[in-house]
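Attaching the record inline, Q. Sequence:
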Amino acid sequence: MKTIIKTTALSILAALMMGTSASALAHKVGIVDMQSIYQQIPQMAKIEQQLQTEFAERRQELEKLQGDVRFEMEKFQRESATMSDEQKTALRDKIQGMQKQLAEKGRPLEQEIKARQNQELAKVQKLIIETIQTVAKNGKFDEVKVKDTTIYFNPDKVTDLSSKVVEAVSKK
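Structure, as predicted:
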């Protein structure tokens, strides 16, 4: 009697394990290369151009100020030998004031640009993730992984969805 129970239990266990391995084989996995997607979609170039335009005037102002600082520093180096102490002090003060002004204007601009980049990138990232989900559902994938965070995958058994995602995002 005990042998029958053991045999039955082993048979049930073997049947369950076979069912599990059969379903594991049916598990369809896709992979996406996020860096590649970001580099290829036209939305990223559009964001870059938009930010360039948005901050162009303030950047030009800072570049002009940088040029003025450079000019005054070169002037100081060239002419300091012939300048009086009073002129040297006045020019140093002028240069320091300009550098301070540059720092006061540059840091907030840099922070504002980064904040705007992050806002725009968040929108694009949301669009990419929604597109990945749509592509995965349409392709009946059980799971999609990010290539950069995956240590190993067998390219014969895992489908790279990156090009499909780029194509779909580009149309939006």
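The longest helix spans residues 85-138. The longest strand covers residues 29-32.

More tomorrow.
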